[in-house]
Amino acid sequence: MLELAQTRIVLGLTGGIACYKSAELLRRLQDHGAQVDVVMTEAATHFITPTTMQALSGRPVWVDAWDARAPNSMAHITLTRGATAVLIVPASTDFMAKLAHGMADDLLSTLCVARGSVPLLIAPAMNHEMWTHPATQRNASQLRADGVVLLGPGEGEQACGETGSGRMLEPEQILRALIAHFQPKLLAGRRVLITAGPTSEPIDPVRVLTNRSSGKMGYAVARAAAEAGARVELVSGPTCLDTPDGVQRIDVHTAAQMHHAVMERADQADIFIAIAAVADWAIAQPSDQKMKKHADGQAPKLDFVLNPDILAEVARLPQGPWCVGFAAETEKLHEHAQAKRRRKDIPLLVGNLVQNTMNADQTELVLFDDAGIHPMSRQPKLAAARALMRAIAERLPDSSQPV
Ligand code: C5P
Known about the structure:
Layout: E1 8-13, H1 19-31, E2 35-40, H2 50-57, H3 75-80, E3 85-91, H4 93-100, H5 107-114, E4 120-124, H6 128-132, H7 134-145, E5 149-150, E6 154-157, E7 163-167, H8 171-181, E8 191-196, E9 201-202, E10 208-209, H9 216-227, E11 231-236, E12 247-251, H10 255-265, E13 271-274, E14 281-283, E15 304-306, H11 310-316, E16 322-329, H12 333-344, E17 348-353, H13 354-357, E18 362-363, E19 366-369, E20 372-375, E21 379-380, H14 381-395
Parallel strand pairs: 1-2, 1-3, 3-4, 4-5, 8-11, 8-13, 11-12, 13-16, 16-17
Antiparallel strand pairs: 6-7, 9-10, 14-15, 17-19, 18-21, 19-20
């Protein structure tokens, strides 16, 4: 998925050892279709050469405010007009201080002041003492108040050998944050509760009853909801997926645990999206010890109990959230999905065919609501999840407006 097609990003580098990660970021931006103009401060050139950045970007690299290559001798204007964003990676302590004061004593700081309405995103990178210094914190607050988006910093081991906050985010995180920045904030301020993944019902301490759900669709929806500005809680069965940025994840195994985790939170949510493939039955009495093969060669008999229907229960809450269900069917999608929507009494149900979606990176969704049936095209799960956010935002009644 080319997330940055038709964009032009001004990538600014300031003096810091994290400059070596900017080369990787440049490649990732290009992988997503962005055209990248690199601008470096003089200090940045001590950490990585303009030649490296020029070879990777395939475009001239700019350092000097007096560079005569700019036809009008105004590189700060030429570079920013029509740019999609200015992205400063890494942003040093000194550069943040300059930005906070509107100083313009080199090309990069000048173009930040000259950029007009072009969004400015910066990824601070510095020693933890420098980051926590009151002056830096003051500058960070001022920059946020001025509309600058601060990406990170994170915590952890630092190049100087010390540990703490001030560590630059990884290139992949910066890329995702940039992409998220450009998603419409359709669910700003909403609290969204999501279930995802399979559940896993113990038979004994080593055996479980589970299903083939990968969790990919639920995680894509959690990411899309966070990108749309929502506060997202993701109650997840066992998966091997990374938690989407900005999402609070609660890990569970069994349907009973998922039920408990959801019911604890449902009252505070504005929207509930049930995507988990919840086991319909649990083993009535899981064995405390590993079950042994019968000497007589007989297979064991397992007794089941019904699991709670989490979605139906949330949908019945008097002051509950606006509910979205999912239906993965192997046949008769429309018939089964419509019946499920009626049975659970929910405003929106998203259907898909198991053979088109399970474990795949693409999916073909069909939305079912009071107005009828709305098929969507086959597309990557993240694109489908973003389309679902639009569909939800369009349908939300005013009463679920955030307070
Ligand atoms: O009940 P059924 O599996 O047919 O419906 C699927 C929808 O209901 C999904 O949204 C799923 O997450 C939700 N569900 C649930 N609790 C269950 C079973 C399904 O929340 N025990």
